[in-house]
Amino acid sequence: MSDSELHEVPDFIDDENVENELYEHHRLVVDKGQGLLRIDKFLMLRIENASRNKIQQAAKAGNILVNNVAVKQNYRVKPLDVISVVLAFPPRDTTVYPQDIPLNIIYEDAYLLVVNKNAGMVVHPGYANFDGTMLNALVWHFRHQPGAKPDAMPLLVHRIDKDTSGIILVAKTEEAQSKLANEFFHHTIQRTYQAIVWGVPRESEGTVTGNVGRNLSNRLVMSVFPDGIHGKHAVTHYKLLRDFSYVSLVECKLETGRTHQIRAHMKYLGHPLFADERYGGMQILRGTSSGTYKRFVENCFELLPRQALHAKSLGFTHPITGEDMFFDSELPADMQQVLEKWENYISNRIS
Predict the structure, then answer these.
(1) Which SS3 state, helix, strand or coil, does residue 243 take?
(2) CB 46 within 8 A of CB 88
(3) Is residue 320 domain-resident?
(4) Ranges in the chain, pLDDT < 70
(5) Which residue range(s) make up the domain with 214?
(6) What's the rounded Cα separation, in Å, for the pair 278 and 272?
(7) Residues 139 and 212 in one domain
(8) Closest listed residue to residue 257, CA positions, set 307, 226, 222
(9) Catalytic residues, which ones?
(10) Are residues 174 and 197 in the same domain?
(11) Helix or strand or coil: residue 300?
(12) Cβ–Cβ < 8 Å for 83, 138
């Protein structure tokens, strides 16, 4: 018997609106009558679309546990062994064609690279987005380097929303991908986001805990289920950075990486992301009823026609060298411009 948990690669999102890890967790209990068999061969028979190379890379990364102990690929399974496996999620069937699209690559070595993604760029080809994505650009980048292999492919370990800007990590080898997937699975990756939200949180620091899952009546939206009946466990820590009375700038740190987690959690807290149309943030939720104020907010929406969310920093352990890596980024121009407008508006109101 087996019990596998697929970590939220949704089929209902019409773009790359995901902030989740791209891996699978499998738990299998070996049958009583099972004869001795190498674990890589055993798992190839039990896990759909799992190649022997991917399983071997998972074992090398310490992602295959038997009775809570990491094992090598040549371990022979025994009756009633409890096997736990973390695998990088298999790629979609969509062919990724190289396209010469500019990318802001802020770090690269032989094993991984880090991109500061612009808002509006889809991460992976999919429904309604078959080209023009970050992966199309990376395939071009990989294949136009000196000595590049003609079939070189970037390997994702996480994604961020199409309309979210910021830092995203990409593996260049299956070994690196497997080890990074293990870091995401065990929540040792350090991720911070900055968001402009409607209103000002009552507490300057806090934690939102509540399962995040597909809304029961609207399949394009994720909702929070505090009773835990639906969705997946999700935890977001937030901190107030700047108070503009009607809106505020907050920092969010993720413990988990569920689809639309920050967007759903902040709405649940009563502070939807500014200009987030899908979660109600493209309405005037705080402030006066004057025409001047309405025109001011609409002007802000024109400057920032997307959810005000930026993946600001990412910290992790290098999968090969073991070095502590940390990357930070500036807020993009559209968010900075809107913050400046709010600062001026509040200053003029007070003076």
Answers:
(1) strand
(2) no
(3) no
(4) 1-24, 89-94, 127-128, 350-351
(5) 191-311+333-350
(6) 10
(7) no
(8) 222
(9) 161
(10) no
(11) helix
(12) no
